[in-house]
Amino acid sequence: MFESDTLPIGAVMTTDPKRPARRATILVWLWLASDIAIALASLWQINALGGFGGPMRDHAAIELSDDIAAVTGGVFMLMFLLSGVAVLRWIFLVNRNAHQWSETMTISPGWNVGWFFVPIATLWKPFVGVRESWAATVSPDDPEAVTTPYWMRVWWGLWLATNVFG
Hints:
Helix content: 55-70%
Structural class: mainly alpha
Number of strands: 2
Number of domains: 2
Order of helices and strands: EEHHHHH
Radius of gyration: 21 Å
């Protein structure tokens, strides 16, 4: 751990989540950009194959569209993996900090990340861990009194929607 990544809070050392949050945010934006790029490459490929009602292009144009689709697909997968790791690392750090501030936490940092990979439980358990971390961070002495913010419910709803329809 780098010295610049830690903050003294009383006698407890916690990891400052700001830098990992910035990294995760940048990588999520790059993932979104790569998703848009792969969509555009797919449209180009459909056009090259004559899927929009036009004539089918020559062999060279079809191969070029295949190559572009392969490159954008590779970049998309790389950005997906990097952003996923960055976001999960941030969730782990925030949960670990919350555990040091409040004794009411029920989901460990490891399980807050692990629940994303457990079928069925992934539908609600990661949200519970993030919500607990939020509440313990906002009010370590009385996290039960903290209401779940609207944006957190929207985030989780969008997460579920992308997993169902994606």
